[in-house]
Here is the input.
Amino acid sequence: MADGANQEKPVSLFYSYSHRDEELRRKLEDHLAGLRWNGMITDWHDRNIAAGDEWAKEIDRNLTSADIILLLASASFIASKYCWSIEVKKALERHEKGEAKVIPVILRPCSWHATPFAKLQAVPKDAKPVASWSDPDEALYDVARKIERAVTDLQQQQRRRAGEKAQQQAQEARKQAEAEARQAVEERKREAQQRREQEKARRAAAADVARTSAPYSDGPSPLRRPRLIAAVALVILVGAAGVFAWQRWPPHEQPPAAEAPRRSEEKP
Here is the structure.
């Protein structure tokens, strides 16, 4: 048994068998007890159905979810209509899909070579029926060892699939993080462009305000044109008034002084 097996996910086993072979099924359970106690397997058969449960639904539920399905073959098993038409059919369908591993366990001599599961590798060694061994426990021990090997292989496959799934998830997470990082960079670029455009617009508006409020240099602003015209007209009027005054009273002439009033008395 592998050390630390209890850290692995248990492999689920399903026993498909005839009740006439229940004694051998119990003995096989005993040989698999070590795997069960180590947490490598969980096993189920129809004797686990609780009172009041619908046995057909419980069988179907466990048969559908099992990782390994043991077909305990015997003449009674092959003769069972339910085992043959329901359990064997469902087991082989899941085996073909890769959903479960089916292991035929030959309990008693029977015509199992004529069955659909004859193509599968059977146990014990050389597919010799358990009941035909001089020591049935030796046969069941051989069966238990091969089941343990199948359980170990299945757990390795599960670990490999889990590793691949974790790697895939890590790659997807990395791609998502890279996409989010690129999106954040693009967002910062857009924000920076918006700020530049806003600053450019602000400066243009400030320049317009400065041009309308400061004295003109290259030419009058349309807003100041009426006031400029009025100022020029005032300058012209003032200039004209000055010229008129200069013409009336040239600089070398003084306006006549007012005559002094006559005194009533002459100077003696």
Notes: The CA atoms of residues 174 and 180 lie 10 Å apart. The first strand starts at residue 11 and ends at 16. Confidence is low (pLDDT under 50) at residues 1-6.
